[in-house]
Design brief:
2 copies of one chain form a homodimer. Chain A is of the alpha+beta class. Helices cover about 35% and strands about 25% of the residues of chain A. Chain A folds into 2 domains: about 170 residues, PurM-like, N-terminal domain (60s Ribosomal Protein L30, Chain: A), CATH 3.30.1330; about 170 residues, PurM-like C-terminal domain (Phosphoribosyl-aminoimidazole Synthetase, Chain A, domain 2).
Chain lengths: ~350, ~350
């Protein structure tokens, strides 16, 4: 696999091919280790090849999502720490398709960069490979474009994931009913959303540096708190969708727009959800941002996940089983709300 | 479909959602018209859904590719002309998977931009939708991220395509043999490669403006010649792979690296190819660049396609039939080389 990635998929007229290849060599092993048996490797290859395993799916539905890391990259550049953003983009993508019940199959990245450099490049790719390994997702290829005029000293990181789900196991939210319980699963911080507001408050308004240690963060630096990688919820989702004790009727990945905007994406029109804001701890980075920025609480829940990175909607009598699965997988999870008759709205009490 | 694109897939914390939605409304119809029956549209959706049609494929192999437009975007910005770059990215992606025999199924885009603005945004999306319509490929979703700190007044455009091919109809190049004929299909200019060198010579060295009309271009401006959209070869490929008169044993999409780098990607190790550089006309934009930049001919063929955007390798007795198919589809195509015993090398005579 790594040969194909090196010689064919990671190629572009705009990139210093020799440097790219020598840096790729350092992470070749990691990228190769994500290979899955469904991957085909002919001698050449302009695209990546992945055979669908029809012994596992009768009516396979592909689920694909494309995302960027956004201005979290700016924080990575401030701290010259590039080993986490690969996890961010992979985990964000995995969550986005896992909420529909899909198993991640393969991932591809795009790096647009002013000047290819070490260790940035190999650290980003190593993070991608490690995050893919953790969920059994193959790195099928990628594209790197060196464009000094466009990116200057910056770079952008884009990821695309393709997964598959059996059609009758698609999770759409349509079966969410009044009486259902909302299970919240904890986030570890901002994940990859709300960085424009967070940076404005912490760096511009407060004048913090990335290595500042405000008392509220209890010894952790601002940079460390902001860069915590996006949590990947796939282990718990995978266990739950295979469990006969739990039927998840809807899942929402809480990204930009927070609970207010993401939950309605799967909510039937005749239901509302009431969330309890005290159900899960609010990570101290959010407390710092809200306090220093004097951010209104509704605004905060509209921009940030505020400690809830994912919500599952479950028949009430299965909530305990669902919470057990999450905890068995190492996640902090709890009841955080309930579904009522309504009109597709979210309230946070 | 357009509802999902508007409300779910084209969303990001970093983007002015209201502006994005009002601009999207202008191209809603075009995007909706790319819908394919395999697309599923549940009420919500964090990822796009596409069901594989198993009545058409026994052993479906997915073929995926990710690409950027590169610094051709800089020329689009110089001329404030944004209706062609969507065609560039779609057609580049389509060609990259079509050369392996894959039918394009769906496309997704990523736009990273300093400040979302009109008509840039809707013109880019309209170009994407139009180019997808032309090859029957669905626009399954996309992501737009507004990042003023990173992009300033610039933007980047990334595309991802997913296609499918029956496993035993994969075209890999493995069957290319000495005696095979290379068919060249004409390009209309740079496509999406070599822009760093082209811009340096034309704009920096020669001091041309985008609206300059050098004699060699016979009335066409430099901007117009550079922005000609990447040719999409799918109509000819689709016709050829379904024809019983022609068996294509290998196809190379001539992108960055030219004939020298792209043909060896599919060439068996024990073969060489000799190309005849006079087989197809060299578009005048290349003549201008080579002349004004005093570019060495080998260098030129290493950076640019020099008039050959795609090469097919065909058993010699089927070459006439293959050329007929190309011409029937409106392409200028001709014999441009032959396969010899060798060691995976390309010579251009």
């Amino acid at each position: 696999m790594s040969k194909e990635i090196k010689s064919n998929l990671y190629r572009d007229a705009g990139v210093d091919i020799d440097l790219a290849q020598s840096l790729l060599k350092k992470v070749k092993q990691k990228i190769s280790s994500t290979k899955r048996p469904e991957m085909l490797t002919p001698i050449g290859g302009f695209g990546g090849l992945f055979q669908i395993d029809l012994s596992k799916y009768r009516e396979p539905v592909l689920v694909s999502s494309i995302d960027g890391v956004g201005t979290k990259l700016t924080v990575a550049m401030m701290t010259e720490k590039f080993d986490t953003v690969g996890h961010d983009i992979v985990n964000h993508c995995v969550n986005d398709i896992a909420v529909q019940g899909a198993e991640p199959l393969y991932f591809m990245d795009y790096i647009g960069i002013g000047k290819l450099r070490s260790p940035l490049y190999e650290h980003v790719l190593a993070g991608i490979a490690d995050a893919c390994s953790e969920v059994g997702c193959a790195v099928l290829g990628g594209e790197t474009a060196e464009m000094p005029g466009m990116y200057g000293n910056d770079f952008d990181l884009v990821g695309v994931i393709t997964g598959v789900v059996e059609k009758n196991r698609l999770i759409t939210g349509e079966k969410i009913k009044p009486g259902h319980t909302a299970i919240g699963i904890a986030s570890n911080g901002l994940h990859t959303n709300g960085f424009s507001l967070a940076r404005k408050i912490l760096f511009e308004k407060c004048g913090y540096q990335a290595n500042s240690r405000p008392a509220l963060l209890e010894g952790v630096t601002v940079g460390e708190a902001l860069l915590r990688p996006h949590t990947c919820y796939w282990p718990a989702i995978n266990k739950a969708v295979q469990s006969s004790d739990v039927r998840i009727d809807g899942m929402a990945h809480i990204t930009g727009g927070g609970l207010y905007d993401n939950v309605p994406r799967i909510l039937p029109a005749e239901t509302d959800v009431e969330f309890n804001r005290d159900a899960l701890p609010v990570p101290s980075i959010f407390k710092l941002i809200v306090e220093k920025g004097e951010v209104d609480v509704v605004e905060a829940y509209r921009v940030f996940n505020m400690g809830i990175g994912m919500v599952w909607f479950i028949p009430a009598d299965q909530a305990d089983a669902a919470i057990s699965i999450c905890r068995d997988c190492g996640f902090n999870a709890t009841r955080c709300g309930r579904v009522l008759h309504g009109s597709g709205k979210v309230r946070i009490l």
